[in-house]
Design goal:
This protein has helices spanning 2-13, 16-37, 55-60, 177-180, 362-366; strands at 40-53, 63-69, 76-84, 96-101, 109-114, 116-119, 124-129, 132-152, 159-161, 165-167, 170-176, 185-191, 199-204, 206-208, 220-221, 226-231, 233-242, 247-248, 257-265, 268-273, 282-284, 287-288, 296-300, 302-303, 308-310, 316-324, 326-334, 336-339, 345-349, 354-361, 374-378, 385-390, 392-394, 403-406, 410-417. The strands form 9 sheets. Strands 2, 5, 8, 11, 12, 14 and 15 form a 7-stranded mixed beta sheet that branches. Strands 9, 17, 20, 21, 24 and 25 form a 6-stranded mixed beta sheet that branches. It is 12% helix and 51% strand. The longest helix has 22 residues, at 16-37. The radius of gyration is 52 Å and the shape is rod-shaped. It is mostly beta strands. The protein is built from 5 helices and 35 strands.
């Protein structure tokens, strides 16, 4: 083995300078040959982005590409080019423009399209990997979808948010008919958690189908995927409503009538605004009850400082109670009769009469006479004996709503056989 290595070393070292000079002149000669003939060579260019060409023609036919390049990972292809040896080093990805020509497609469908390429620097594309790409073409469609808010979480206690507004408020969804027809809602998520300041941000929009499932695989063109959301966030608190101060002309209702009070529903409201610390109650616009002869019900219209609103637009209802004036009248020593007494019996009451006080509407009470009041005890079914019976009364029909007070509610009745 050592002998073999020795001989090889000796061969290389023998006439070394002659050998080096020979290699040098051989290289020069080869360079002249290459420069004179410039033979062709092949070069593979990786990572060429494949684009669609003549999409405008496709669009003019009412068509659109759906889903991009179906079987081309990251949309790039490998292109093998043939070029001269001298120019090969100048051929790069920037020199290669790979494309798919869709200008001749005239109807929807799925097509296997050949990749083509334009190559600069005098080169030409000879091979592609992959050689074809699947392209899906659909009819072009568009639809206008209003933006909806999806409120997430809860605003911190003591704060209120206004209804959000969107810019734009309607999204024009354009794209493949198959995808556009699926879109039923455009939803913007708004998270209220820890939100204490006004919202004025650009937020993403999601598309949902009829089953309320988010559409993540659709292809859309010219559709804004975000909107500017504006929403006020304001401190809030609960304050009472000063309704009685709004009731005007309490002493000027119709003659014979009087104002007796009011009700306010609700009696408190929640207000929201920038400067509400000094607001202790809410006043209402005047409610006029002049010459009223019955209850007056009106919607209370709140008087609010600028920048302050009632939360949720709560409706306020105020009722001013107006009724006829009340009067009391006393009748002294009215007689009591015994009714339903059996034949052959007589009865005697232990008192000659009792006092009666009747309270009610002034105009009715003032016209009431003692003869109109009937006091009696009912002796139905009673035999001779001594009984304690309830005193009953009978009034004119016009006194049905009045109250009656008797000086005695029971009397002693003695029933005897007639002589």
């Amino acid at each position: 083995m050592k002998k073999v290595l020795f001989r090889i070393g000796k061969w290389f070292s023998h006439n070394l300078w002659y050998k080096l000079i020979a290699i040098f002149f051989a290289s020069i000669l080869w360079s002249f040959v290459i420069a004179d003939t410039n033979p062709l060579t092949k070069k593979s260019i990786e990572g060429n982005q494949v684009v669609f060409r003549n999409e405008k023609i496709l669009g003019d036919n009412g068509l659109i590409i759906r889903g991009g390049l179906k079987n081309l990972k990251d949309g790039v292809a490998k292109v093998e080019v043939e070029t001269s040896m001298r120019e090969a080093r100048y051929v790069t990805t920037d020199s290669v423009s790979a494309y798919i020509d869709v200008g001749r497609i005239s109807e929807p469908g799925t097509y296997d399209m050949q990749i083509k390429a334009d190559v600069s620097a005098g080169a030409r594309a000879t091979k592609f990997s992959p050689s074809t790409v699947t392209v899906e073409v659909d009819k072009f469609s568009e639809n206008r979808i209003p933006v909806q808010a999806n409120i997430i979480g809860k605003i911190p206690e003591g704060y209120h948010h206004s209804e959000p507004s969107f810019m734009p408020s309607v999204i024009v969804v354009k794209g493949a008919q198959m995808d556009v027809s699926r879109v039923q809602k455009a939803v913007c998520d708004i998270n209220l958690n820890d939100l204490k300041t006004d919202l004025n941000n650009s937020l993403p929009v999601k598309f949902y189908d009829a089953d309320n499932q988010e559409i993540v695989d659709g292809t859309f063109s010219d559709a804004s995927q975000s909107v500017v959301v504006e929403m006020q966030v304001l401190p809030m608190k609960v304050v009472p409503i000063d309704a009685e101060a709004a009731i005007n002309a309490k002493d000027s209702v119709a003659d014979g009538f009087e104002y007796t009070g009011y009700s306010c529903t609700p009696d408190k409201v929640t207000i929201a605004g920038k400067n509400i610390d000094d607001i202790k109650s809410i006043k209402l616009e005047n409610i006029n009850i002049q010459n009223a002869k019955q209850n007056v019900q009106e919607e209370g219209k709140p008087i609010l400082p600028d920048g302050v609103d009632i939360v949720n637009g709560t409706k306020i209802v105020v009722v001013a109670f107006v009724s006829e004036k009340k009067e009391s009248k006393s009748f002294k020593n009215l007689p009591i009769t015994v009714t339903s007494l059996k034949n052959g019996l007589t009865a005697a009451v232990d008192t000659e009469g009792i006092d009666v006080e009747i309270s009610g509407r002034q105009n009715v009470i003032n016209s009431l006479k003692s003869e109109s009041i009937k006091l009696f005890v009912d002796a139905f079914g009673l035999e001779a004996g001594v009984y304690t019976l309830d005193v009953k009364y009978e009034l004119p029909k016009s006194l049905s709503d009045e109250s009656v007070s008797l000086s005695k509610s029971k009397v002693i009745v003695t029933i005897t056989q007639s002589k």
